[in-house]
Amino acid sequence: VQLVESGGGSVQAGGSLRLSCAASGASYNRYCFGWFRQAAAKRREWVASITPDGTTTYADSVKGRFTISLDNAKNIMYLQMNSLKPEDTGTYYCAVDSRPYATACRPEGDFDYWGQGTQVTVSS
Fold it and tell me: Core-most of 11, 37, 76, 82, by most CB within 10 Å?
């Protein structure tokens, strides 16, 4: 399984970015996928997940601002990030839970494969 993130960058507070995660070796309609982020000197934290049936869940800190979605035809997962805040700054990772048809995935320990990360910087 290989996961490759893209779409990071630098924006001002209030701006938007869309991250992409291209997966090979794992289908979005079979496995649970998620986004995590890690700020400097902080632990990696869960941001959002999407299950094989399309159920989405979000961390409270991003609910209403971020949207996780899939393009099954292209096997790409997206994270649309709106109303960005400086505290959203960090390296964003996509990850996959290799349990087939998991109905939920959130703890970091559920995820087996990780991308290399893409940097998001939000300035005030």
Answer: 37
